[in-house]
Design goal:
Length: 200
């Protein structure tokens, strides 16, 4: 049974810049740059039928323009119990609309509503037993993150085989954001069959 989520891929050159932030923080488990992404909708562990329904529903998404995504700061999630070091994504209306549509689609498939407010970000490290002071010092040491901007021309359906955060993640299906249905959706059809076979 795969653990699924949707997201935006991070281009290799942006990943390389973010990877410069790695190291020097006690209690951090650093994410491999190949697994950097912006989550749109976490799904979780699902059965074969639900996986098929999700892949089909995502294929019915409205045509949307490519997204301009900007990362502008490093921060930590978790407050007094830091759990993740992240690069913040600047919210924008198109990203918000895409995420809201996926939330509606997942509820239509039968998933429970996502209880957390959507806060777009790229996770750089999972933190365990890291003190707020250590995290603050680590952020200060790294200084300001220069703005990093890229264009996302598709979103993807990911799976995590081991059901543990941090990867490795597998791209199960791709869905283009710009232009008419094309190779991306054709690949989705094939990936749907492969995903459902593995989910059983």
């Amino acid at each position: 049974m795969p653990r699924l989520f949707t997201g935006l891929e991070i281009p290799a050159e942006i990943g390389a810049e973010l990877a410069l932030m790695r190291g020097g923080l006690s209690g951090a488990r650093w994410i491999d740059p190949a697994n950097y992404h912006v989550t749109l909708r976490f799904v979780g562990d699902v059965d074969r039928g639900t996986a098929r329904d999700i892949a089909t529903a995502l294929g019915e998404s409205r045509a949307r323009p490519a997204l301009t995504v900007t990362l502008d700061a490093l921060t930590a999630f978790g407050g007094s119990k830091p759990r993740a070091l992240v690069a913040r994504v600047v919210p924008n209306p198109e990203l918000t609309r895409l995420q809201a549509e996926q939330e509606r689609l997942m509820q239509r498939v039968g998933l429970d509503p996502e209880p957390r407010k959507y806060t777009p970000h790229v996770t750089l490290a999972r933190l365990r037993h890291a003190s707020p002071g250590d995290v603050a010092a680590g952020l200060a040491l790294r200084g300001l993150l220069r703005k990093l901007t890229f264009t996302a021309e598709r979103f993807v359906l990911y799976s995590a085989r081991d059901s543990v955060g941090g990867g490795p993640y597998v791209v199960e299906a791709t869905y283009p954001l710009a232009g008419p249905a094309g190779p991306g959706l054709e690949r989705t059809d094939r990936a749907d069959a492969d995903l459902c076979a593995r989910a059983g």
